[in-house]
TrEMBL record:
Lineage, uppermost ranks: Bacteria, Pseudomonadati, Pseudomonadota, Alphaproteobacteria, Hyphomicrobiales
SUPFAM superfamilies: Multidrug resistance efflux transporter EmrE
The protein's name: DMT family transporter
Keywords: Cell membrane, Membrane, Transmembrane, Transmembrane helix
Subcellular location: Cell membrane
Organism: Hoeflea ulvae
Keyword Transmembrane: yes
Domain named EamA: residues: 6-138, 148-281
Residues annotated as transmembrane: 34-54, 66-85, 97-116, 123-139, 151-171, 178-198, 204-228, 240-260, 266-284
Bilayer topology annotation: Multi-pass membrane protein
Pfam family, one: EamA
Length: 294
């Protein structure tokens, strides 16, 4: 798959995740955060199961224990990130959650460099700075007063950064993106349902009332978007993937304004433009080759 097509898949995943913030927020009107996480990932795992089975049938070799362990680790990190984000959404706004979650675009290159000793392409650094500045501008240039929900979402961004890096490490060598998605969804569903049923209880009427959000989050925002992520990351680097996926903050602000009536300041529109310029830089910059010396 060409790199530009892989990046387009990652951009589509970011757009779907942005819309998912609205569903995550409105779902909290009826059920608790952990039960919602468990149900959305259960739906996603059930939807993806036949595709993962088909991938397994067509593979020339079984998944190694090493790769299965990596898939499980990704699932654990996915659950931790989603739990921090979901609980944070009970305190902060969709717009704030969107742009603070996007901070993982800053964390990915540093973790990649410091832990894996893999320096990114030089053009990624100005793109990261532009993306961070755009996310900050989406908030109206005001990060001075962070509430508990904001702090939880920043911790979530660290988990997302780790998840993006781990997917990049395991999806290529294993060659099993659908199996990876199925394993991480299944583990997140088990952890979410276990915590949700033990601490929040189960109200069938409340679950039925939240069914539209559960189905959208499970089928579209989880099953489709995370699968687009793992497929796209097979053909691009983790820092570039983080930049494209971080556009979820832009789409979260957009859907929050259109559906929930949250206001986007004028500076926020400039921030959105800056994010897209960063995407273009990340997409086109690596294609530029220095001219050979005369």
């Amino acid at each position: 798959m060409p790199r530009h097509l892989a990046n387009l898949l990652l951009l589509a995943a970011g757009a779907v995740w942005g819309a998912g913030f609205v569903a995550q927020s409105t779902a909290m009107d009826n059920i608790g955060p952990f039960l919602f996480i468990g149900l959305r990932f259960l739906v996603a795992a059930l939807v993806l199961a036949p595709f993962a089975w088909h991938e397994s049938r067509n593979s020339s070799h079984p998944v190694s224990r090493h790769h299965l362990g990596g898939f499980a680790l990704i699932g654990l990190v996915l659950f931790l990130g989603m739990a921090l984000q979901q609980v944070g959404l009970t305190i902060t706004t969709v717009t704030n959650s969107g742009f603070l979650t996007g901070l993982y675009v800053v964390f990915v290159p540093f973790i990649t460099l410091l832990v894996l000793r893999q320096p990114p392409h030089p053009v990624i650094w100005p793109a990261v700075l532009m993306t961070f500045a755009g996310i900050w501008m989406l908030a109206g240039g005001s990060l001075a007063e962070l509430n508990t929900g904001d702090l939880l979402t920043i911790a979530c961004a660290v988990m997302w950064a780790v998840q993006v890096i781990l997917v990049g490490r395991f999806v290529g060598p294993s060659g099993r993106p659908l199996t990876l998605s199925f394993v991480q969804f299944s583990l997140a569903a088990l952890l979410g349902l276990g915590l949700g049923l033990s601490t929040e209880g189960f109200d069938l009427a409340a679950v039925i009332a939240t069914l539209p959000e559960i189905l959208f989050a499970g089928v579209i925002a989880t099953g489709l978007a995370f699968t687009l992520q793992v497929i796209g990351q097979r053909y691009t680097t983790a820092p570039q993937a983080a930049i494209f996926l971080s556009t979820e903050s832009l789409f979260a602000a957009l859907f929050g304004a259109v559906i929930l009536g949250e206001q986007i300041p004028l500076l926020g529109y400039a921030g959105g433009l800056l994010i897209f310029l960063a995407i273009l830089l990340a997409e086109l910059g690596p294609m530029v080759r220095p001219r050979p010396a005369a």
